[in-house]
Each structure stands twice: as structure tokens, then as C-alpha cells.
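Example complex used in Figure S2.
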Amino acid sequence: DAKTTQPPSMDCAEGRAANLPCNHSTISGNEYVYWYRQIHSQGPQYIIHGLKNNETNEMASLIITEDRKSSTLILPHATLRDTAVYYCIVRVNGDSSYKLIFGSGTRLLVRP
Amino acid sequence: DSGVTQTPKHLITATGQRVTLRCSPRSGDLSVYWYQQSLDQGLQFLIQYYNGEERAKGNILERFSAQQFPDLHSELNLSSLELGDSALYFCASSAQTSLLAGANVLTFGAGSRLTVL
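Predicted assembly (229 residues):
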């Protein structure tokens, strides 16, 4: 199973871009990278996912390196409401399971 | 509202008791996942059901059990409760139509907060 490594905490100023790195050096060719976030004790919220190509949606951009061993989640204009724990997850493939194993994540603090 | 409904939102009970947490998945989703999050801890995967069948098991205690019913709602049963079982319990659902489906996004509910006194 591919594992991920994230810095335990980061901060950025409101209105600036937040760049959250993730290392997944043991990822295999057919495994997706997912990003979720959890605001306080709410249920985790899906942000974005990708396989090889960079992806963008209304919430964020995902940049995956060419060797797929790392990725970066970019929140282009962070707001105070983006303060949360961000999880980078590589999907675990089982016989017929798509379970996601959450690590410790990165605690992002957006400063006013 | 994510579309995943969990009840009850809060539950306080005593050690040794048994409780049942309920989850209704998003309309059309066949898979249900249960996660436990203790205070200041990460999300621990407990168990997954797909269309009524158990598909994956995580670090779920023997005192815990779950099932998914024909209408696709799921229940997590926690028995012989201990103080350490106090936690947030999250349910998530996904479509997961095929092993070859590629990406599979989980949608989480708001959680059930269990307090064991």
C-alpha cells in the first residue's frame, strides 16, 4: 500500500496561495491521489483527485510530478474558512474495496 | 448537506452499554464506510459494505459490528462500551460501481459523537 508523508502544520496569509505538499514515493501506476480536508470536527470534505495529469476545480488545483512520487495541493486564494486539516491519500486497492486510509494530515492555519 | 445522513448526532451512555449508530448513504450510492475518530486522533477505517456485503475490514474491535440492509442504510453496533470508545463516528458512501471504475470519491456524513461515561 502506498503511504503518504505530509508536513504536520503550515500557515499562510489570507488571500495568498496555500501550497500543501505530499510525498507518495511508493505509489503504483494505477493509484489515484486524493485530497480531503476536515474543518474542526466536521466530516471530511472531498477536494480533488488525480492520477497523472494536473487537475483543477472550483476549490483547488492539484499538481502531480511527472514521476508521480509527489504532489501539491494549491488553494489559490486562501480564506480564513480554509483553516483545516488537509489529508493527502493514495487509494488502497483491495479485492473489491476502495477504502481510503487517512494519515495525520497537514494542519493549515490561514492568518488574517 | 452532503447527502449522507447519520443519526444520532450526539449520544451519551455509560460503560458496558450497547448503542447503534445509523447511516443513510447518498441516493444511488452502494458502498458504505465507517470511520472512528477519537479526540485529537486521525480517522481510523473500521469497515466497508458494498450492496449489503462486507468488503473490507480495518481495525474494528470484536465488540463492534455492522451491517448494510437491503435499502442500503447501514448500522454500526457498539457493545460493552468502554471509556476509550468515546469518539466521533463517521459514515461515508460512494458509488463504486466497478473495480474498473477508477477514481472513487467518498462523501462523508456529519458524524455521530459518542460519549461514554
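The CA atoms of residues 94 and 106 of chain B lie 5 Å apart. The radius of gyration of chain B is 14 Å.
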